[in-house]
Amino acid sequence: MTDSPEIRLNPAVIPLSIYLHWPWCVRKCPYCDFNSHGAPKEPGALEALEGAYVDALLTDLEAWLPDVGGRPIESIFIGGGTPSLMSGRAMKGLLDGVRARFSLAPDAEITMEANPGTLEAGKFEAFREAGVNRLSIGIQSFSDDRLKRLGRIHNVREAREAIRLARDIFENFNLDLMYALPGETMEGLKEELDEAAHSGATHLSCYQLTIEPGTAFAKHLPEELPDADQTAEMGDFVEAFLAGKGFTRYEVSGYARQGRRCRHNLNYWTFGDYLAAGAGAHGKVTTREGIRREMRFMNPRQYLHAVEEGRSAAAEIHRVDPEDLPFEFMLNALRLLEGVPECTFSERTGLPFEQIASTLRDLRARGLIADDPGRIRTTRLGLNFLSDVQEAFL
Question: What is the pTM (predicted TM-score) of this model?
Fold first, then answer.
């Protein structure tokens, strides 16, 4: 790649989303490396916190208003942590507050993450009435033994009840599943996938269990983990099996029925913008001067104090250097199996396509990028070596 020229950006054409982070869980899982914290144990303590936290989220979001420029919000994602620990009243206050500050697209996708064991019918209905129109449920497994090994607080009965409630109240919901779990066999994986595929879910997110640094699993490795060959075989099986059940793999970990791809995640992968509020939340915004990234304070108390005292909740703010934009773009776009149109690169980065043309030619010659006129996407070989392909743009 040649030296980066001056970038030319038009923020008005960049899609815009909002990410809101709820940092508390009943208990942190041993494999989890997200910014999540055990909820206060004292009776009523979390309920007392949630009002102040919702107020802080809305105040924090206001800091982004000068960058919006009238763009509508295409999607909202409320992640965590376990947002389903929130009351319906708090969720209504949060989403009403967002609507009062921003213009939402008429068909905006509003997703909330939920965990079985923190839900009941009344809460589901309250979340739906507040405006949530897509649920993402952290099932992870339909085996009590594997759930116990993962440190999950719910059991299979609670998982199935959460799915039943979701099916009754939401037309659009996702299940999170994990594979290559301790003690898992191919037959066990097949049973898991079959139940998920027939659950009524419109979307499945299937993640390989990875041992992340700093997690409890990294300190005490679980026994009976599948080896690398077994794990690869499981990954291939997941894709083939779900295709036969009407779920198309469109992203590294994403499988959707027709018309049910996650719009919020698609905005990430196509290098759109997303405003962020909440402890540890990451945001990205495009201005005519360049692309800016921000990260909020990770500690919930520190985050709350900063907002309540009228200070910025941003722990880090930086402009993305133009020479880093090709890698940042490809880090996202190449996760999509269909890739993106070539024109998206220039539209979202402000750089001329020539900036990456020679790297693409080299990767095509090596069989890692598809010879697909007008699109940038990996081949199956390239997808298997995705990190290497992405790093070629550094």
Answer: 0.94
